[in-house]
Structures are given as C-alpha cells and as structure tokens.
Amino acid sequence: MPALSTTLYGYNNYWAECYGTAPELPMSRAEMDALGWDSCDIIIVTGDAYVDHPSFGMAIVGRLLEANGYRVGIIAQPDWHSKDDFEQLGRPNLYFGVAAGNMDSMINRYTADKKVRNDDAYTPHGVGGKRPDRCSLVYSQRCKEAYKDVPVVLGGIEASLRRIAHFDYWQDSVRRSLLLDASADILVYGNAERAIVELSYRLARGEEIRDITDVRGTAFLRDDTPEDWWEIDSTRIDRPGRIDQIVSPYVNTQESAACETKQDEPGDEQNVLRFVPDAKRNRDRTVIRLPSFEKVRNDAVLYAHANRVLHLETNPGNARALVQAHGGRDLWLNPPAQPLTTAEMDYVFGMPFTRVPHTSYGDARIPAYEMIRFSVNIMRGCFGGCTFCSITEHEGRIIQNRSEESILEEIEKIRDTVPGFTGVISDLGGPTANMYRLACKSTEIEAACRRPSCVFPGICSNLNTDHSSLTTLYRKARELPGVKKVLIASGLRYDLAVEDPEYVRELVTHHVGGYLKIAPEHTESGPLDKMMKPGIGSYDRFKEMFEQFSKEAGKEQYLIPYFIAAHPGTTDEDMVNLALWLKKNNFRADQVQAFYPSPMATATAMYHSRKNPLRKVTYKSDEVETVKSPEKRRLHKALLRYHDPNNWPLIRDALRDMGLGRLIGSGEDQLVPVDQPPEDKVRGSARRKNTASAHAKRIRKGKVLSQHTGLPPRKNS
C-alpha cells in the first residue's frame, strides 16, 4: 500500500474526481443522474436537514470527501421505520457514514426534565419528531438491513459522546458503547477529518475494514490485545501495596516531561513514572485496560474511575490507547487524532460550500441555519475543561485556528453570495469567542501536559493569553467593504478576556449588540469547583471593565449572565445564596435550565456515582452532593426565578425547612414576600414575562435576562 499522507490534503485523489464538484451533494437518484453518476462511493446518513454550510457536519465531511475524489450522496432525515429510504441512492461502493447530526439526538429531543421538545431547530419548519431516539443506532441498523455487506462508519457528536460505556440519563443506567448497539463496523470520534480521509483512502484501495486498526481517533472491536502491546491493568481501585516503575493512568505531568518518580496525589499508594520522550516508542504500544462494561454498569464508583482515566488520556501528544471489555469482545479506542494545522483548517473551510440549505427544501425555514448563516467559525476546541460541557470530549482542548486571510475571504463570500445579507456578521467565534490563537507557550509542555483545564483553578503560567491576533482580526473584519457590523455571539471566557484589557475595550466598543452573554454559571465555590469554573470575582472584574468601556464608548449595554441549577456539588444553601446574589444585583432570569447529564461528561460521572473524577477515585473518597429528585430540581430552578410569584410557595416552604425563615419578607436582604398575590395577578405576571415588550423593558432597566440551554455548541461538526 502507498505511504499514508501526513497532511489532510496529501492523499492521491480517488478515480471519480473526474466528475468534478457538485453544485450541491445529491439527495436523490435524479440528482445523481444529472451529475452523470451511476452510483455513490460514500453515502452520508444524517439526522439533520442537509445545509451546505461549514457549521453542519455532513457538509464538512461530504465536501472534504468530494475534494478527495469520491462521489458523496446525502440521505437526510430518512423515514427510519423501514429500510426503503436507506436504499434511495443505491448501494454505496465504499461505505455508509452515519451521524445523528450536530447534536446528540436525545439532547435534541428531550429537555433536562426529560420532556419531549415540540420542535427541532435542525429540521425544515422546525418540526419535531423527524429523527428517532438514539438516531445513530437506528440509522446504522437500517443501513445494514438495506445492504448487509456494506461497511457502516459511525461519526458525529453522538458517536463521540457514546464511544465507550456511558451513563444514559434517559434510562438512568449505563449503556454499552454505541459501536456495539449499532452493529456498525468502526466509529470515528471528534471532528474526525483525518480519520475519515485515511479510512476512505484505505478502503478505496482494497483494505478490509476489519483490518484497519491503527487509525487515530477511531474505535473498533477486537478479540484480544495483540502480543506486541503492553497492557496496563486499570480495572480496579484501592489496590494495596506498591507497584514500582509503572506509567500510571493517574500521572499528572504539568511543568515538563522530565523523568521523575513521584506520587500522583496524597494517599495514592502507587509510585508512578512520568512520561519521558525516550519512552514514547513504548507508549505507542501501550494500552490501558479499563473496567469492563459489566463492571461499570454495576459499580458506579468504577464508572467514575473509568471516566477519570478516559479524560486523562485525551491529549493527542501523550494519550494511550484504551480497551474495555464488552462481554466476550474488547472495545478498543485509539488515541485522539492530531489537531489540524492552520493550513488544514483553511483547506477544510475553503471547500465550495453553497452556504444555503439544499434546494429540495424550497423556502422552508431551518431555524439552526437562520442562526448561523451570517456567522463565521474561526477556531475549534476549548481548553476550559468545564465538566458539564461536551466540547472537549468532541473537539479536544488544543485550539485549531484558521488563518486571518481564510476568515476574511469567507466574510466576503457571505457578503457576495448569501441571500438576505444586510451587512451584519452575526458572529466571529466557535466553541468560545476568545480562544483564537491562544495556546501553550511550549509545544513540548503542551504535548506532555495532562491537566484537564488550562484555566482552572487558575490560568496556567504556560498559557499565552495575548488576544492581539483576535483584536486585529476584528478590526480587519469590520473594515471590509459592505460590512456594517461584526457581532460576537459565541460564549466569552471572561476570565481570559480580563488578562487583555485592550481586547475587552475593542469588544465592548465595537462588537456588542446591546447586550453580551457570558456564563459565570454560579456564585458559590462548591458547584463552581465541580464545574471547573472560576470564582465570581472574575465576573466582577470583567463587569467593571465592561461598564467602564461601555461608558467611554457612550453606549448603553448590558451583560446577560448564564446560570445553571442542580449541578453536581450544589446544595440547597448554594442555590439560596445564588438567588440572593441575583436579587442584590437586580437580575431577573426569564428562562433557566437545570443541569443536563450528557453522555461521557465528567459532571455526568459525578451525577451518577456521587464521586469526583477530578481527583483520584476510591470507595472511601468524599461524596459529591447530587440533585436527582424532580422535587429538588424544581426547587433549584425556582430559586433562579425567585422573582416569579408562581415559585414563591415552593421557595417559602424550602426556606422554612432549611431554617432560613428570616429570608421570607419584603426587605432588601430577604428573598420572597410573606404574602401571595391574588391568583389573577400571578397569571397576568406569567403572561407578561413572555412578551417582547417586557423583555425590552427589562433590558432598558438593567434587569437582564439569562438563559442557559445546557446544549452542545451549535458549531460542532
């Protein structure tokens, strides 16, 4: 076989490149006929409507494969009740690529209270119910029914978050890896461009999919560990005695890759040998055996232990392979793929996207597209490490940046080609607004580091926090002819922003459309520590800057803070203190949401196990306060909306039970009044709070609304 490329665009194209570029990837046999195709080489099945835009996963993967010479078809939101829709484009020559879409299908369909949503932002007209629960699983099985011998490759965020045995909030139990339940052949996780291009190349050259076991960023099944691999047993915890000269899954290399023997944490019995460059060749043939699916299903503490090990093996520079037994077979996870370079990011985002929905949808409105059609994704990844968030599990914590030239060219393309453009770019961002070109000061330290966050409990001394590249980009973007305004709508890491006051000044002066959303999430250290979020002091520092620069610019602008209820580590007293802080600062949240346990997240492991995987997990380690009952979750949400008369009876009862009856009254330091207003006034208040005029009035008065969705960022591909 020819040598594999070291770059995303270095492979020889498939023979079908002679067909050229499709105006849009075909969704029907008629479109295939018009292109002169007798068959598709690869068919992508997706739970989202097909929008040929780089914020949609099927578009990025489809256009990338097309650029490599393959004929790619799209089956979007098929009727899953039979195999018929899965046969509409015929038998693919290489494989089916299956993804649920830009969101996990269960999070897409259900609220944090497990209620069915009425709509779906990724469907024409926003209609709900157009995809099944556990979408990837169902689609994969239908593909196998349609063409039993055609390989099925799972991908997308649903596959990323379910690539291993995972806690399923909706069933309140641990499920097997999606790969087994879906009966697929291989799973690619993360954004997966490297994996999918290499996999396609090798399949096109005749390799059997069962023999492809060395692609980074993939998961597959095998019968046992190959003889030339070194296996580390991490299937148990609280093991007595000393084990010398072992590379522990708990090693926490931070400052350098120097060789030294050191205990990982106080109370850790195992001596560990830190990773050294000379040992890398052994590391590449090392696999860590996690507790089996059957063990983590029946033992929540072992589940937390496995979650900790998995998250410590996410840095592409030092991650080792993982293996987890599922019955009589082993689920094998190769280390994550290497991040894309700037040149590769430009290549991906420079594909010939039409930036509009497929023409078959006519004038149908697709809400998710409406949100992002005038936005530009400038980077990927997040090194914040928030335990409730899905970004790191999917995109990784090393920031992948596009070039300034590539971004400006895309803005000009929006200006010149996208219908309805009025001169306003709605967002320059990504998973975060302000991590563009921020990275470790040393590539060697970055490759050796195993910290889950670069900014918690404080900003790492090795992290470059200079925002000047982003400030320059903002200035050049708004100077482009035809661009009237450039807004920033992605979530801002204000703890990073305050390290560069000039960036904050630039942002506040030119790129805030009246209000700016940020996410302190809470005020109390208990939940904040479990979230790996900074203390409220960082918010106060940013607020002071924001107000100062708004005043200097002569603008009336407001912050909209996000808060989350019922997160692991949160007590009833914590929520009362947050409510008092909200009242003191005159914040009235219009919509709030409780913690949503997404698959594989660290906070979900806390929720399930009551243990903290941010530290060494043992059966004797401290328990994490966990809010699980519907009654407690309702109370925590009610405290975020302390001002709503409908919530006052519940809050009064809770305050009395907690011995905090002194907080019932109409004083400035009290939370809810003693008396309940008449029922008709309560109903009228509930109606008024949902009106646009009430929203605008609160904004003018500084009574800023907050909304925390708890959902993965819309730009995950």
Structure overview:
This protein is an alpha/beta fold. The chain has four domains: 15-217, Rossmann fold (3-Layer(aba) Sandwich), CATH 3.40.50; 222-336, no CATH class; 374-511, Transcription Regulator spoIIAA (2-Layer Sandwich), CATH 3.30.750; 519-717, Transcription Regulator spoIIAA (2-Layer Sandwich), CATH 3.30.750. Helix content is 32%, strand content 12%. A hairpin with a 4-residue loop joins strand 5 (166-168) and strand 6 (173-175). Helix 10 (300-312) packs antiparallel against helix 22 (602-609). The longest helix has 17 residues, at 536-552.
* Helix count from the secondary structure assignment: 26
CATH superfamily of the largest domain: Response regulator
Largest sheet: spatial strand order: 2-1-3-4-7-8-14-13-12-9
Q: What structural class should be given to the helix and strand makeup?
A: alpha/beta
The strand count comes to: 23
Question: What is the CA–CA distance across the termini?
Answer: 30 Å
Q: Please give the CATH architecture of the largest domain.
A: 3-Layer(aba) Sandwich
**Whole-number mean pLDDT:** 89
Major beta-sheet overview: 10 strands, mixed
Radius of gyration from the CA trace? 26 Å
Helix content: 25-40%
| Outline | globular
Number of domains: 4
Question: What is the CATH top level name of the largest domain?
Answer: Alpha Beta
Q: Approximately how much beta-strand content do the residues carry?
A: 5-15%
Low-confidence segments, given as residue ranges, are 240-281, 686-717
